[in-house]
Amino acid sequence: MSNHLSADQFESCVLDRAGRSELEHISECPECSAEVERFRNGLTVFRRAVRDIAGETASFEKAQAASMRVPGWRWTLAAATLIAAIVLPLLVSRPQPIASVPPETSPEALMERLNRHLSGTVPEAMEPALSLISFEPPAVEREGVQ
Amino acid sequence: MKMDTAAGLIALSMKSPALEFEDFDRVVKQYRTRVLRFLLASLGDRDLAESLTQDCFWNAYKSRGTFRGECSVDTWLIRIAVNLVRNQVRTRRYQFWKRAERVGSDQIERWADRNISPEERASVNEQVLAIWNATSALSEKQRIVFVLRFVEDLDIHEIAAATGLTDSTVHVHLSRAVRRIRKSLGSGK
Question: In terms of CA atoms, which chain B residue is nearest residue A55?
Fold first, then answer.
């Protein structure tokens, strides 16, 4: 029979469930005490390693995400450029307002224009040609009448 | 609002969607490293751990309405992560990933870059690598409870809540895990 901790007792010590007998044995047996201590240290170092490696991975991911993220001022600049690209051509080619729009907005003026149109002897398109024809009778005829 | 309490998260689901999203973002920031750490230690695969961390928070976001605060947010997230590990192990995808990038000795060697002597560093590396390799030989349940206990520092009740196992089953898996690791390290009988 061994004078050292059994596998079950060893596990109890590692899992912080050691009873009185195990604790007494550990305090008296330097070999078992050293082995439990060594195993626990190994687990502590393992925990630290995993935590550090995971922390490194997380910060690497964060740095990657940050490098892929476009800074705010760049978005602003891109938006301003886009707006300028859309608005500037519109401003340049904007039709000039017609300066001489007849102010015939009152009902009387419109009616007068309508009457003039209806009483016209020739179609509106021909009206410029009328200016070439004189409706004044010749001077001889006028004199003869008198 | 304090987000590390269960009540905080329950209150989230009653708020406007925009605010809810903003607060969930805070939950992600607060617990991301922990979830990633658990997945990394359980699977030993950095790429897979990162991918499943995203899945974990996406699943949590989708099911946030069902969270009623019976456990801490921490435990709730770990429970989701445990299910992801189980699913992963059971699919063939894991076999593919097993061949992909894993946490290897080089990463552990880089880790031990402390203010210690080269001899000590070599000893520490050897220790960590031996335990790391020993955990990969554990069964799925043994590895999960081992990681939750010795990496995440959860007690038996918390592990039971996160895994859905009883306290006594957790204890049995934990004892077997310790025994197998001790044996792998060459000191167990």
Answer: B33
